[in-house]
Amino acid sequence: MLELKPNCECCDKDLPPSSEEALICTFECTFCKDCVETKLNGICPNCGGNFMPRPIRPAQLLEKYPASVKRVFKPDGCT
């Protein structure tokens, strides 16, 4: 099951579970659309993979399957 990380690893922007701005790679590294397009050129700085839109978990399932609250912030990897 996807973790649904709460923020962009590059700029620390909040990315709630319903966000259409969240993009993930195959390892669930999570970035906002702006950072992927303007800073990362569509390539994950952690694994070198590409990005896809993160699926949105239906609100009624968030109570049973909550999103992660662990923030990952690596601004040095986004320059």
Task: Give a description of the structure.
This protein is mostly loops and 79 residues long. 13% of the residues lie in helices and 10% in strands. The chain has a single domain, classed as 2-Layer Sandwich (Herpes Virus-1). Strands 2-1-3 form a three-stranded antiparallel β-sheet. A hairpin with a 5-residue loop joins strand 1 and strand 2. It is elongated, with a radius of gyration of 12 Å.
Question: What is this entry, summarized?
Answer:
The protein is mostly loops. The protein is 13% helix and 10% strand. It has helices spanning 33-38, 59-62; strands at residues 22-24, 30-32, 52-53.
CATH architecture: 2-Layer Sandwich
Sheet bearing the most strands, described? 3 strands, antiparallel
Structural domains: how many? 1
The H/E string reads EEHEH
How many strand segments? Answer: 3
Q: What shape does the CA trace take?
A: elongated
Instruction: Give the CATH class.
Output: Alpha Beta
Note poorly predicted spans.
Answer: none
Amount of beta strand: 5-15%
* Helical content class: 10-25%
Strand order of the largest sheet: 2-1-3
Structural class comes to little secondary structure
Here the CATH topology equals: Herpes Virus-1
Gyration radius, rounded: 12 Å
For the residues shown, what is the average pLDDT?
A: 96
Measured distance between first and last alpha carbons: 30 Å
Enumerate how many helices there are, as a single number. 2
